[in-house]
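Running co-folding for zinc ion.
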Amino acid sequence: MSPFHSRLSLRNRNASSTSSSYSPPSSSSMSAGLDQNAFAGAPTAVSTSMRGMRRLEARRGLEESHYLASKARSAHLNAPVDMHMLEYVSNYDTNLMCPICRCPLVDPVILYDCDHCFCRDCLRQTWTEYTPAGPRGNCPTCRASTKLMGRGGVSKILVNILDELVVRCPKHEEGCKAEVKRGAIADHVNLYCEYAMVDCPSQTCELPLRRKDAKECLHYGVSCLDCHATMLLANLETHWEEECPDRKALCQLCQSSVNHRELQDHVDQTCPATSIPCTGAEFGCTVRSKRGEIEKHTKTCTLATLAPFLEAQKKRQDEQEQSQKLLARKVQILEGGFESLQKILYAQDPDLSAAEPSRIPLLEAQLHTGNNSTATADTDSSSDTLHFPAPPSNRNSSLSTDLTFPSFSPSDAFAIAASPPPQDFSFTPPPLQSSPFTSPLHHLLSMHEALRDEVARIAAALTDLDGRHSMLILNENLRLKEEMAYLGAQVSGVMRQVGWLTSARLQAQAQHSPHAAAQTAGGGESSQGSGGGGGGDGGGVQGAVNTAATALRGAARVVNVGREGMGLGRRATDEGRTKL
Amino acid sequence: MSTSSPLPRAATGSPGGSSSAAILLGRQFKQMQTDKDIPGISCGLVDNNIFEWEVMLMIADDCPGYGGGCFRARISFPSEYPLLPPKMKFETPIYHPNIYPSGEVCISILHPPEEDRYGYESAAERWSPVQTPETILLSVISMLSSPNDESPANVEAGKLWREDPKEFKKRVRKCVRDSQENAWD
Ligand SMILES: [Zn+2]
Ligand SMILES: [Zn+2]
Ligand SMILES: [Zn+2]
Ligand SMILES: [Zn+2]
Ligand SMILES: [Zn+2]
Ligand SMILES: [Zn+2]
Ligand SMILES: [Zn+2]
């Protein structure tokens, strides 16, 4: 082991204990590089004498302090590297991504309860509440209530992988081409980056300077040769490169002098000496010539002459393709809409699904005979064909024959109303067939429109049918009520007759029985007997009359019920009418 | 920094600024445009501003009610994104219990977690910084087919949805049809 080596490790320990909390693992290699640079000229075989060691120690201490000081100064002059803004050169696994900022984890923390991982800063900004026991909160990913795992929770492997990712120097916009490992980026900016700011080497000057310029103080006024503006020498380069309005540059091709900043544009667009392809190159001409001389060629080149037309054609083709795509999408949507329409149409009345193909033309025809009449008018006119026979005068007619009204079948009724012969089910309604269409799109749109109208009409027809149906039911109901009332009256009549017959019978019995009693009791008390008999007779009549009265009342109740029912029926009918 | 005037800011790979929110949004925008897994969603920027997205939702036909609809919406991200949720607003008129008549979407994942003005919402349903524009759009699409009865942003639509589903469906179909016709304007 050379002392050089041991010195390194010692130095590293010091560095990691004293330097900032951010300690990249690769700092060892970094500092090794530094040392090698510093000792490039030093003899490798260092004498092992104590004196030499001590001298080295002293020198190392000096260097250490210099290293830290320059680092601190540099950190003061350059904004700290924002690790979230770095541009990554190497591809990285998406598992290394923080779910909040969606870039590779920076100073990762792991949550105690769910093991989810975030950048420390990202989580700090999310968890705004602090508890005495430390930060607590809900995991942004799984929402579990949890806390941070200690520093030891993050695997060294993860940190190493993250620090190995290669990033572009944050000063790349200023011109630094460096691509370094992420773990070393802070050191790159603070110690090596040529475009980072450092103190001016002059003891008296306080102004900062780019590291690459820091050989002498550049902070004195100069004036630009071209525009004669006055500025610090340190800024001259930037001015010269990007700002000077008067700086001219010589075009290498045409030897003309152009504005320095416009040189590139000149070469690309206007320089007559640049070699450019024929305008017909896209269509097959392989000729290249100087911009100034291309005219000569274009005059004779067929492809160049055709180029504008071909260009226009191509453009039109692209446009057409684009609109075709749109149309395809539109057709798809319309088809979808049409399918759902069909579904609605066929699902609404499963009973009629057998008569499917003829249904729509029939309905349409029926509605057309209504001659654009309003829905109510239509109801009126069709209620004639569907008119239900008036309540039958023949009371004896059986109910079952009356109930044959379902012989009203919609298709029949429509067949009557449909004067034009039913056509085949076509999706193009008649009024639309005649008018020409400017484009298939319009055709489709109008077809869609027509279908929509049709659905609306069918819906109207359905509600109409529904109304008629309930009307029929109510009519029938009414008639049944009347029938019942009639029956009730008849029952009461029968009751009355029965009552009368019973009372007559009872009377006859009563007249008969006292006679027999008087015969068995003897004739002595005949007057009394007859008197008692008369009393018994009277009681019997009374009983008969009572039963008759009860029977009558019962009959009356039946009749009343019948009336009530009728009344109800009528009211319901009225309601039905108003509804229709 | 030197005393010279600052360099013209070069594009940082994401249009419209260089804050961390802008960088994140730029990354998510690029992802959305290249992602082939999310059919029916296309997005663009309003005035090349990364904080204003315009999205076109083409609802799949199997979505009950809104299937086949083409709805244009705008998502506005705050500068605090992703700590605070964006706002989403439909530009195409859309009839839905959870969408205000103005088009603004009222969905729990767009409500910041600390704000509890809708007391019923558990924090579990609200905004979390791991949500992405993609998850927001997917939630909105699923909201279309299953409205949340508890927070009717459009009270009339909510009432109709509860009490007269037939009429509600009719209104929805109408807005879907209108959206289809306006989709190519
Ligand atoms: Zn993060
Ligand atoms: Zn979690
Ligand atoms: Zn650099
Ligand atoms: Zn100086
Ligand atoms: Zn100048
Ligand atoms: Zn030139
Ligand atoms: Zn040519």
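Result summary
The two ends of chain A are 110 Å apart (CA to CA).
The first strand of chain A starts at residue 108 and ends at 110.
Job closed.
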